[in-house]
Amino acid sequence: MNILHLSFSPRGPDSESHRLALRIIEHLQRAHPTAARVERALGTDAPPPIDGAHATALGAAQASPAEASNAGTLSFSETLISELERADVVVIATPMHNFSVPAALKAWIDHIVRVRRSFDVGPQGKLGRLRDRPVLVAVSSGGAFSGERARQPDFLTPYLRAVLAVIGLRDVTFFTVEGTGGGAEAVAQARARAERALQAHFDAI
C-alpha cells in the first residue's frame, strides 16, 4: 500500500489536523505494516499559483503546445497528479480557514483538477479520469461546524467532496477536531471524539 500524506496547515507538525492525520496513518499502518508513506508539507511550502500558460491551457478547447510540453507550472501540476495516481490511500490534513479550505489546499486543488489530464468534459458533464481510492481527511477548526454543537457554517467538507469527485475520487471520509479555540479542555474533548470516530471507522473495515 502507498499512502500519500498531504498536510496543509501553516503550523506544520504542531497543528491538530496534522496530529489527527498521523493517527489515521497509524491505523492504516497497523492494518498494512509494509505500507509506504509519501508526505508533502504543503502548508509550510505551498504550491505556486498557476501561471499564464497553465491558465491558457485550461481554457483551451484542445491541448495547447504549452500543455503538451508541461511548460511552467504545468510541470508541477503533472508531478502532483502523478503522485496522486500512485497512491492507494490519500490522507489530507487541513485546518478550516474562514469556513472553507486554506489557500494552500485550494492551490493544490487548482493543480490536480485539470481538464484532459485528471478529468474530461463530455455531453454528460465532467468525468473523472483517476481511479477511485479512499481519501481520509483530517480537519481541525477553532469553532464547531457539525452536529448539535455547530456554531459556524461549513463550506469545506461539501466543497472537497464535490471537487474531488470531478477527478474520480468519491470515497471521501472526514474526521474532525472541532472547537480547538475553546482551550485545553475543549481540545482534549475534541481529540477524544475524533479517536472514537477513528476506532469506529477502522473497526468496520
What does this protein look like?
With 205 residues, the chain is of the alpha/beta class. It has one domain: Flavodoxin domain (Rossmann fold, 3-Layer(aba) Sandwich), CATH 3.40.50.360. The protein has seven helices and seven strands; from the N terminus they run E-H-E-H-H-H-E-H-E-E-E-H-E-H. Strands 2-1-3-6-7 form a five-stranded parallel beta sheet, sandwiched between helices. A two-stranded antiparallel sheet has the order 4-5. It is globular and about 55 Å long. The model has no long low-confidence stretch (mean pLDDT 95).
Total of helices? 7
Care to count the β-strands? 7
Low-confidence stretches: none
Which CATH architecture? 3-Layer(aba) Sandwich
Q: What's the story with the biggest beta sheet?
A: 5 strands, parallel
Share of β-strand residues = 15-25%
What is the residue-averaged pLDDT?
95
Query: How are the strands of the largest sheet arranged?
Result: 2-1-3-6-7
CATH topology: Rossmann fold
CATH superfamily placement: Flavodoxin domain
- End-to-end Cα distance, whole Å, is 16 Å
How many distinct folded domains? 1
Tell me the structural class: alpha/beta
Using the alpha-carbon principal axes, give the shape.
globular
- CATH level 1 name: Alpha Beta
Rg (CA only):
18 Å
- What series of H and E elements makes up the topology? EHEHHHEHEEEHEH
